[in-house]
Each structure stands twice: as structure tokens, then as C-alpha cells.
Design a protein that fits this description.
285 residues, 45% helix, 6 strands, alpha+beta, 6-stranded antiparallel sheet, 13 helices
């Protein structure tokens, strides 16, 4: 894991913003993707030298006002702004607002009842270690043939993505899935959580560069919705829209819910989960 998560996040976001998005001319010769440091510094009202120190990790304690100014200049979304401020608070080594609490593996009855109501849609409850704790029958029928649930529950999704060769067969966009898995692992407490740190150490040894390179270069802010592809061994190519629903801070868990993204996938899921045709409605995406 990068020991300069805030600097990494600032650099990645700076390189993702085009000059046109912030009202600046693009110019014919730009060797830097996105904004130059000087441009971001001007927009945020800080010096180039100070921004350089932040990105390089030589200054890790910016004020809340500076972080807000950078967030404004980078046009960060609400979740990105929260993440940036959390990185600022967590700059001290070993700090975690969660203290010594490990990933929550308890399933509240109300949460189980929610999953029951979601049947037959594929849905699962996961914690910040990316463990599948409990799931719907629809999720089990969707994912069991891929090998994710071979060892029962809880099952660690990130370990599966990086260490099970079948994951590369079933995910046509495996590299993108691997990027998002690492981003999810790095969010929140990150390595300050001893169990997350243990998983990082394990994958560093067992996987090597494909994992460690991502830990060093990908900021910890996964997407919460989108459309992904799964080459299912029984149902063929599926396009699945996914939504992430976070529970309370006390739970420290989230629901992953999948819906078909097209009519072909809807029909295939109907067959897979044993529901009447048209039971799972395709969503645009």
C-alpha cells in the first residue's frame, strides 16, 4: 500500500480534470494529463511548492480549509470530498477512527430480512474486508458456478479476484475488476485495520506485482454503481448493473445488489434463478 494515500489521491484527481472543465485553455503542448500543478495551485489559492509537498507526501497535515479549496478546484463529488478529508485526518501513522475494531461479521436480523425481500435478485451483504457474509439465493445461483463461494461463507471477494484463476475467465474486464477491488480494500481505515493489513501482506506475497502495483498507484475510492460483464459458465455473457447500499456507520457493511442491464441478461437470469420470464426487469445502462 502506498504510504502517501493523500498525495496519490490528489495527483490522480488532478490528472483526471481537463483544463476545459475548470475554464482554462487547453493549449497545443500539454505533456501533463489533466491539470498542471501550477494550474491547480492557482485555482486552490496555494503555492505550487506547497501542492508539490502534499503530492509527494512531504507535508501530510493540510488544514481543512486547504483540503476544501483543493476539493473545490478539483470539482470533487461529495463522496470524493469526504474521502479527501478522511485521508487528511488519517495522515498520522496508525491512526484509525475505528480504533481496534475489526471488520464486522455479524448480520442483523433486519438486514437479513432486507435480503429476503430482495429475492430472487442477486444480492449480498459485505464488510470492509470485502467478505461476502450472507447472500440471496439468486446471488448464490449466480456466483456459485464461478468458484467464489467454494469454501462457504464468509468468502473474501478480493482474495478470489487475485488468486483464483477462474476469476480471470469469468470477468472479461478482469483488470478493471482488480483495480476496483484494490480501491475498495484501501478505503476507510485501510491498512490501519490489522485484518486488512494482514490480507494486504498475504496478497503481496501470494500475488506479487499485479497486486502491489495497484496498491501503490490506485486511490482508495471505488465506484458505487455501474455495469459489469460476467462470462457465466452456465448462462453465458451477462451484463449486470450493480448498486452499493451502505448501512450505518455502526454496521460498517454494505449491500451489493445486481440487476440485468439488458433484456438478454434479464432472460438469462430468469432461467438461472428459476423465476418466470420477465421477473427480473432489465435496467438501462
Amino acid at each position: 500500500m502506498s504510504d502517501n494515500e493523500m498525495g496519490l489521491f490528489l495527483r490522480v484527481r488532478r490528472e483526471a480534470v481537463t483544463p476545459a472543465e475548470v475554464g482554462l485553455p487547453s493549449g497545443p503542448r500539454r505533456r501533463t494529463p489533466g491539470l498542471r500543478r501550477s494550474e491547480l495551485a492557482t485555482l486552490a489559492g496555494v503555492s505550487v511548492e506547497y501542492l508539490t509537498r502534499l503530492e509527494q507526501g512531504r507535508d501530510r497535515n493540510p488544514s481543512a480549509a486547504v483540503l476544501s479549496a483543493l476539493a473545490d478546484a478539483l470539482r470533487l463529488t461529495r463522496s470524493q470530498r469526504v474521502h479527501l478529508h478522511q485521508l487528511g485526518k488519517a495522515a498520522d501513522p496508525g491512526f484509525s477512527c475505528l480504533g481496534g475494531a475489526g471488520p464486522n461479521r455479524e448480520v442483523r436480523p433486519a438486514v437479513q430480512a432486507m435480503l429476503d425481500q430482495l429475492e430472487p435478485a442477486p444480492a449480498a451483504l459485505m464488510n470492509r474486508l470485502n467478505e461476502v457474509l450472507v447472500c440471496t439465493t439468486g446471488y448464490r445461483r449466480l456466483m456459485a458456478p464461478t468458484g467464489l463461494l467454494d469454501d462457504g461463507l464468509p468468502s473474501n471477494y478480493i482474495r478470489y479476484v487475485f488468486t483464483d484463476p477462474r476469476a480471470r475467465e469469468f470477468y472479461p474486464d478482469w483488470a478493471h475488476k482488480a483495480d476496483k477491488a484494490v480501491a475498495s480494500l484501501k478505503q476507510g481505515a485501510g491498512r490501519a485495520d490489522p485484518q486488512v493489513g494482514a490480507l494486504v501482506d498475504e496478497l503481496t506475497v501470494t500475488v506479487g506485482h499485479e497486486f502491489t502495483h495497484r496498491m501503490e498507484t490506485i486511490p482508495g475510492l471505488p465506484d458505487t454503481n455501474g455495469v459489469g460483464r460476467l462470462d457465466h459458465p452456465e448462462a453465458g455473457m451477462l451484463r449486470l448493473a450493480y448498486e452499493t447500499l451502505h448501512l450505518s456507520a455502526d454496521d460498517d457493511q454494505y449491500l451489493m445488489i445486481y440487476l440485468p442491464a439488458d433484456d438478454t441478461t434479464a432472460a438469462a437470469l430468469d432461467q438461472l434463478v428459476g423465476r418466470r420470464p420477465g421477473g427480473l426487469r432489465a435496467v438501462a445502462g
